[in-house]
């Protein structure tokens, strides 16, 4: 089954609790939280305080995507705040395996992320250690960007790597996902779709989620 993970990056932050509940009621499977530090990516967004604030609002898993340098310093605070999944970028941590181990030791599901320009071979050595692989389908930093179609063969490559393990590991995509692009990424092998603007820019979030699901 394909899962939908609305990114709260495109939500109205003045009423974030309601915005989270709205997509939960609308059929979301995960809540995707985009953490940016202004160094690894050219934007600053959410800290662990926000994860702590939305934790009691929803029963859905909080899928925390760290787009930050030196992630090991901040992983414990996101785990304490109630993250269910924490994903780190291969490009942002010098000791990827150590970061993944740290996440697992804290009782959280570890994920690994690669940018559009990063080859799949960079995550081959940790594939058995993660619960989720996130492929960026835009260059990270902002919502509302156009989907990069050259990532499609990499999604298929990751799916085949995951299948070789025999384990249940999510293949998630993030960036420019909407009813026009969702079918392509699912056919390529993705099973978790992050969507920010396609869901939160719509007045009726249930309808927006149904439109993505209905396009598959
Ligand atoms: O990680 C992100 C940006 O770095 C966002 O999750 C992503 O861009 C989703 O937004 P949209 O669906 O509007 O493209």
Automatic annotation (TrEMBL):
Substrate binds at residues 7, 65, 141-144, 174-176, 196-197. It catalyses: D-ribulose 5-phosphate = D-xylulose 5-phosphate. GO terms for molecular function: D-ribulose-phosphate 3-epimerase activity. The keyword Metal-binding applies. Its cofactor is Mn(2+); Co(2+); Fe(2+); Zn(2+). Binds 1 divalent metal cation per subunit. Pathway: Carbohydrate degradation. Its EC number is 5.1.3.1. The keyword Metal-binding applies. Gene3D superfamilies: Aldolase class I. Pfam families: Ribul_P_3_epim (PF00834). A divalent metal cation binds at residues 32, 34, 65, 174. Keywords: Carbohydrate metabolism, Isomerase, Metal-binding. The active site is at residues 34, 174. InterPro entries: Aldolase_TIM (IPR013785), Ribul_P_3_epim (IPR026019), Ribul_P_3_epim-like (IPR000056), RibuloseP-bd_barrel (IPR011060). NCBIfam families: PRK05581.1-4, rpe. Catalyzes the reversible epimerization of D-ribulose 5-phosphate to D-xylulose 5-phosphate. Belongs to the ribulose-phosphate 3-epimerase family. This is Ribulose-phosphate 3-epimerase. It comes from Evansella alkalicola. The gene is rpe.
